[in-house]
Design brief:
Blueprint lengths: L17 H9 L5 H5 L5 E4 L15 E13 L6 E7 L4 E6 L5 H4 L5 E11 L2 E11 L8 E4 L6 H15 L9 H6 L5 H9 L4 H32 L21 H9 L6 H15 L5 E6 L5 H14 L3 E5 L3 H15 L6 E4 L5 H13 L4 E4 L13 E6 L7 H8 L6 E6 L5 H7 L4 E5 L10 E6 L3 H13 L3 E5 L14 H12 L5 E4 L5 H13 L4 E4 L12 E7 L6 H8 L10 E6 L7 H4 L12 H11 L3 H12 L24 H17 L9 H9 L9
Parallel strand pairs: 4-6, 8-13, 8-14, 9-11, 9-12, 10-11, 12-13, 15-20, 16-18, 16-19, 17-18, 19-20
Antiparallel strand pairs: 1-7, 2-3, 2-5, 3-4, 5-6
Helix pairs in contact: 6-7, 7-22, 8-10, 9-10, 20-21
Bound molecules: adenosine-5'-diphosphate (ADP) and magnesium ion.
Length: about 700
C-alpha cells in the first residue's frame, strides 16, 4: 500500500483509547497516514554521550549523572530546589524552578540520564531547562523526534512508533526504482520510519532527502505538465514561422527596426537577448508566458515596447498594465513619444479617464483602431473590449494578484503574456514560483551608469545628511526624502512625510521648492506634482513608498530614507533605484533611529561587530550598504525573512510544501526538476499518483503561467 492509502483510524493502534483518538483528531490526525506524515519539527540527538565538561561546546549535555546533594534557595512559596550533580568529568547544578517535587525523585546517590542546556552563571555550571529520566529510560541513547506541539510530544512519539510497527513495514514506493537508485534515496518504508526514529544522523539525512525529493518531484511534474499543456495548445493565430530556441534569433520586424533606428542609444546585451526570446515567443504557435526579470533601471520598458511593436506588426493589439496610475502614465508618455512617430496608435486608459473620452477610446479599442493601450487595472474593466488582444505586458507583476492577472488574460484569446519584475525574485524561487513560465533575465545595466554611493546615518547625525543634500541641490540636482508614515501617528514615535515636508521646506531648505506625494492624494494632484518634479520645478520630493515603483527622473541624485530600518530590503532597493538614473553621481542615505537600533553606531563600523552581535535590523541595513545587485539583496532578504515573505510570493502558497522548502532544498529541487522534465519527455501523458500535499498546494495557487486558461 501507498502511505496515503493507510486510511485506518488510529483507534486500531494498540493502546489508543477514545481520549487518545480524540486528541489526535483534534490535531488533525484522523488516520494512520496522517499520523505517519506528521513529520517531526526537529530531532534531539541523544545517541551520543556529551559529558558535563563539554557543556560549552554543545547546545545540550546528554549523559548519566549522579545526585550529590540538595539545596534550597529562597523562602516560602518562592523556595527553589537546587540539585548538585556530577558525572565522570565535572559537576554542575540543576535549578528546579517550580519543580520542587523533583526532591523526592532525585534521591541522593542515585543515577539518572540527563538532557539539558547548561550555562556558566554565578560561578557555577547551571541548567534550568533539562529533562531527567531513569538511567534505563527508553528516551535516551537514540535520536528522538520533536513534533509541532511540545506538550503532545510523548503521545506522538508513542503512537507514531506503534503505527510504524503495525502498518509501517510495507509502505510501497511512489518513486520509480530507477530514480531511487540514481539519487541514492531510501525505500519509502525506511524513509518514513527513519524520519521519525532514525538510527543515526546519516540515516535521518537520507530520510529527509528522500521525502523532500519525492515532494519536489511531484511538484515539478505538475509544473512541467502544465507547461507542456500550454505549449501544445494551438489556439493562437498563426504567424506562419515556427522557430525554435536554438536557431538564430528571428529578425526584427519592421516597426522594431524603425524604433531601434530612432533610439539615441544601443540596446544592452541583456535587452537584446530578452527581445530575441520574446520575438521567438511571439512567432511561436503557442501562447507564450514569460517572466522578464531585470534590476531597477535595466531598461525593461523598452523591451516591452519592442514586444508590443512586433505584436502590432503581426496585426494584434498589445496592452501594457502598470500597478499605479503614476507609472502607467509615465509608460504612456514614453510610448507616445517613442512609438507614435512610427505610426502606432497608443492609448492611455485608467479608471480616471472621464466618460466622454473614455467612450471614444473604448470604441476605438473594439474597432481595432488602437494598436497599443497602456493603463492600470482599468484595462480589464468589464466594459473594455479588445478587437484582437494578442500581447499582455504586466509591469511590476508582483503588485497584482492572481485574479487580476486572470481578468486581463481573459480579454484576449490565448494572448502572449510578458510579466516584468524589478523586485528581483531570487533564482532559487523562480523554479517553483514561475516553474511553468519561461524566464529571461537582464543582468546588465545601460552603460554610463555610476554606482550609487550608499551611506548609513544615525538619526542624530541627520544635519550632516541635510548639509550634503543642500550641496547637491546647489549643483542643480534634485532629491527625494522618504518616510514610513504619511501623517503623524500618536502611537508611533516616527517621522511622517507631512510634518517633514513642513520642516524641510521651512527650516532646512527654504530656498528650494518642496512638495509632498503619497498614496492618499488624488490622481490629478499626484500627476501634477510628478510632472513638476520631472521638469525640475519641484526640487525636493517628500514621499512615502509610493515613489518606490518605476518612477524615472534622471536629474534626481539623492535619496534619503528616514527610519530605514522600518522598510523591507526590496523596498529599500527599489527606493534607492529611483536615483542613479542619469549621468551624475548619485547617493542614498539610510537614516536609522538610534533607539531602535542601538548597535548601529557600531554597525556603521561593521568590523567592530561579529555577525552574532549585529541585530537583524543592523544586518539588513549592512546588506544595503554592501550590495548593489538586486538579486543578491533579494537572496539575503530571503535568508532574513524566510521564503514565505518575499514580496509577491505570500499569496502563491508555493513556498510551503509538506516537508520540502524550495529555498533550503534548492539543490534537491534542481535534481527533481531535471528528473521530472526528463520523465515527461518520455511520457507526456504520465499519470501522477495522487499526492495529497501537492494537490493541496496546487489548489491554493494555480501556477502563474496558467492564468487565463
Ligand atoms: P526598469 O527596468 O527599471 O523599468 P526603465 O525601463 O525605466 O527601467 O529604464 C530606465 C532608464 O534607462 C530609462 O530612462 C530608459 O530610457 C533608459 N534606457 C533603457 N535602455 C537603455 C539603453 N540600452 N541605453 C541607455 N539607456 C537606456
Ligand atoms: Mg520599470
Amino acid at each position: 500500500m501507498f502511505l496515503r492509502e493507510l486510511t485506518a483510524s488510529p483507534d486500531h493502534l494498540k493502546g489508543a483509547g477514545a481520549s487518545t483518538v480524540k486528541t489526535l483528531s483534534l490535531a488533525g490526525l484522523t488516520c494512520i497516514a496522517d499520523l505517519l506524515s506528521k513529520y517531526p519539527r526537529g530531532w534531539e540527538d541523544r545517541s551520543k554521550n556529551i559529558p558535563l565538561a563539554e557543556f560549552a561546546k554543545h547546545d545540550n549535555v546528554c549523559t548519566i549523572i549522579k545526585i550529590i546533594s540538595h539545596d534550597w534557595i529562597g523562602y516560602g512559596k518562592n523556595k527553589t530546589l537546587k540539585v548538585h550533580i556530577q558525572d565522570d568529568t565535572s559537576c554542575a547544578v540543576l535549578v528546579c524552578f517550580n519543580r520542587s517535587f523533583l526532591a523526592n525523585k532525585l534521591l541522593i546517590g542515585a543515577s539518572f540520564h540527563i538532557w539539558g542546556h547548561f550555562t556558566y552563571r554565578y560561578g557555577e555550571v547551571q541548567s534550568s531547562t533539562f529533562e531527567i529520566e531513569a538511567a534505563d529510560s527508553p528516551l535516551f541513547g537514540k535520536i528522538l523526534p520533536k513534533y509541532q506541539n511540545l506538550k503532545l510530544n510523548n503521545l506522538y512519539r508513542r503512537f507514531i512508533k506503534e503505527a510504524l510497527a503495525q502498518y509501517g513495514t510495507h509502505i510501497e514506493n511512489e518513486l520509480p526504482d530507477y530514480l531511487i537508485e540514481k539519487n541514492q534515496l531510501l525505500q519509502k518504508t525506511d524513509a518514513v520510519r527513519a524520519i521519525h526514529f532514525p538510527a543515526s544522523i546519516e540515516e535521518l539525512n537520507d530520510a529527509k532527502k528522500t521525502l523532500v525529493y519525492e515532494e519536489l518531484l511531484f511538484l515539478e511534474l505538475m509544473v512541467g505538465k502544465r507547461s507542456l499543456a500550454r505549449k501544445s495548445r494551438n489556439g493562437k493565430q498563426q504567424h506562419d514561422k515556427d522557430t525554435n530556441a536554438e536557431s538564430a534569433p528571428p529578425p526584427y520586424s519592421k516597426l522594431q527596426k524603425r524604433l531601434l533606428e530612432r533610439l539615441p542609444f544601443e540596446l544592452t546585451a541583456g535587452q537584446t537577448a530578452a527581445i530575441d526570446d520574446i520575438n521567438r515567443d511571439i512567432d511561436s504557435n503557442y501562447a507564450a508566458a514569460r517572466l522578464l526579470q531585470g534590476d531597477v533601471g535595466s531598461g525593461k520598458t523598452l523591451v516591452s515596447f519592442m514586444a508590443a511593436l512586433r505584436t502590432v506588426d503581426c496585426g494584434g493589439q498589445a496592452a501594457i498594465m502598470a500597478p499605479t496610475e503614476l507609472l502607467a502614465r509615465q509608460h504612456a508618455e514614453n510610448a507616445a513619444c517613442l512609438l507614435e512617430p512610427l505610426g502606432v496608435n497608443v492609448a492611455f486608459l485608467t479608471g480616471n479617464i472621464k466618460t466622454a473620452g473614455r467612450n471614444h477610446l473604448l470604441k476605438a479599442l473594439v474597432a481595432g483602431e488602437i494598436d497599443m493601450v497602456v493603463g492600470t487595472h482599468a484595462l480589464f474593466s468589464r466594459n473594455v473590449v479588445y478587437k484582437n488582444l494578442s500581447l499582455i505586458v504586466i509591469d511590476e507583476q508582483h503588485r497584482f494578484g492572481v485574479t487580476q492577472r486572470q481578468a486581463i488574460m481573459a480579454k484576449g484569446e490565448n494572448p502572449d503574456l510578458l510579466m516584468m519584475s524589478a523586485t528581483p525574485i531570487p533564482r532559487t524561487l523562480t523554479f517553483t514560483l514561475f516553474g511553468d513560465m519561461d524566464i529571461s533575465v537582464i543582468h546588465d545595466m545601460p552603460p554610463g551608469r555610476k554606482q550609487i554611493i550608499t551611506h548609513l546615518a544615525k538619526e542624530s547625525n541627520e544635519k550632516k545628511v541635510y548639509d550634503f543634500v543642500g550641496g547637491e541641490l546647489a549643483k542643480n540636482s534634485q532629491a527625494y526624502f522618504v518616510y514610513p508614515l504619511i501623517e503623524t501617528n500618536e502611537d508611533m514615535d516616527l517621522k511622517d512625510a507631512q510634518s517633514m515636508l513642513q520642516h524641510l521646506s521651512e527650516d532646512i531648505f527654504p530656498a528650494y521648492k518642496c512638495a509632498l506625494i503619497h498614496s492618499k492624494l488624488d490622481e490629478d494632484t499626484k500627476r501634477d506634482i510628478m510632472d513638476r518634479f520631472r521638469k525640475g520645478e519641484i526640487r525636493i520630493l517628500v514621499a512615502t513608498s509610493v515613489v518606490e515603483v518605476g518612477v524615472d527622473v534622471p536629474n534626481a541624485t539623492v535619496m534619503v530614507i528616514e527610519h530605514a530600518e522600518r522598510f523591507g530590503l526590496s523596498a529599500l532597493h527599489q527606493l534607492r533605484g529611483r536615483v542613479g538614473r542619469g549621468e551624475k553621481q548619485s547617493y542614498c542615505f539610510l537614516v536609522f533611529s538610534d533607539q531602535d537600533t542601538a548597535d548601529m553606531q557600531l554597525a556603521v563600523r561593521p568590523e567592530l561587530l561579529t555577525e552574532e552581535e549585529r541585530t537583524i535590523a543592523g544586518k539588513r541595513l549592512m546588506t544595503m550598504l554592501e550590495n548593489n545587485d538586486g538579486f543578491v539583496i533579494a537572496e539575503k532578504d530571503l535568508q532574513f525573512r524566510g521564503s514565505g515573505q518575499i514580496a509577491g510570493t505570500e499569496q502563491s502558497g508555493f513556498t510551503k510544501i509538506g516537508i520540502a522548502d524550495p529555498i533550503r532544498d534548492i539543490e534537491i529541487l534542481k535534481i527533481a526538476r531535471e528528473d521530472a522534465f526528463s520523465m515527461l519527455e518520455h511520457d507526456a501523458e504520465l499519470v501522477l499518483s495522487e499526492n495529497k500535499v501537492i494537490a493541496e498546494v496546487l489548489k491554493r495557487a494555480p501556477p502563474f503561467g496558467e492564468v487565463g486558461v
